[in-house]
Amino acid sequence: MFKFLHAADIHLDSPLRGIARYEGMPVDDIRLAARRAFDHLVQLAMDEKVRFVLLAGDLYDADWKDTGTGMFFVSRMAKLREQRIPVYLIAGNHDAANRMTKSLRLPENVFTFSARHPETRFLTEGDVAIHGQSFAKQSIFENLVTHYPIRVPGCFNVGLLHTSVSGYEGHEPYAPCTLDDLRLKEYDYWALGHVHMRQELCRYPRILFPGNIQGRSIRETGPKGCALVTVGDGNEILDCECVHLDLIRWERPTVDLAGAEAIDELQERTADAIRTLREDAGDLSLVVRIELEGATPLHDRLVAESQWRDDLRALAADIGSESVWIEKIVLRTSSPARSAPLAGPLAEVHRYVQSLRDYSGEMTSVADSVAPLLAKLPEDLKQEVKTWLEPGGQRFRGLLADTESLLMERLHSRGGLE
Prior knowledge:
It contains eleven helices and 16 strands. It is an alpha/beta fold. The radius of gyration is 26 Å and the shape is elongated.
């Protein structure tokens, strides 16, 4: 019986674009989180006395700014060398073009698979065969699996591959293949990389994306880690455990404000959601995006005022003892259905805002006029602004609704109902 680790998409020292613009965020902690999670991976390998470690691509994120990233990796591999633990890795789409890795001298326990063709490497004892191929360039759209060799008889066979398989939303369709393509090789285990969410695609043979070891943004929520695989004496897989390695966890709790009439209720319901996540995360730090929804009499006030947002951030800091941060608050609430028709200035505001829906096409000219400014924005912020300018789109309709709510609240607060 033996054990091995399967991890992927480490993205050491990945640049965190745009994160610094969120006030109060632990930027330095987030930047170091991938390194600390990788330290957890190395320590796990030593504690479990695994026979080998598999890294299924995207160890790095394109070229480094300096050699510090490479030296960090070398130093951790040296720790595994001292424990006689070999590491087998492939390059994925992000690190295929890394120029500095080509001149970096790795410890002798680290084996990188060729990008020219699939190759097979055997453990010293000869009872484990690992088949793999690195990416030669960032964009690989051919099916690499077709060229992988068939299983080696008498061995525990592992396929190491960076792939989108049949495609996943939010991931480029690199090295596409089908489950049947993978099964035809008759390997015992397929160690995949590229998809950042843990996905077990098949029980036999075991085909698995372990996900990345540390979430890097609000798009990568939930626990992150690696697979700890236990293999029996007959080369059967006895266990495939998901081991969490992350130090900072990203979450997107939804808070239902249906019927809430006071700000105190907003705070109580949000506090409950944060406490639940805090309990699930244990000692980990949390970065959350609060999404408020539901029909509530508070809606117009929430649109018109901003103090409640600062109060929620303070509430999160208090609950988490400076280990919970709100990355963003998304307002998707709505006003309850009106029991009586509007009259006076309120009715005029409503009619005018509704009429603007017919002129949504004019947003095209607005988008054209601000195009030079958009080009100067960070990519993530640029895409967000573009969604607001999309004629007739959901964001545009939401902007009109918020405008109406703001005007309604101002009229109410100033007594302008006659």
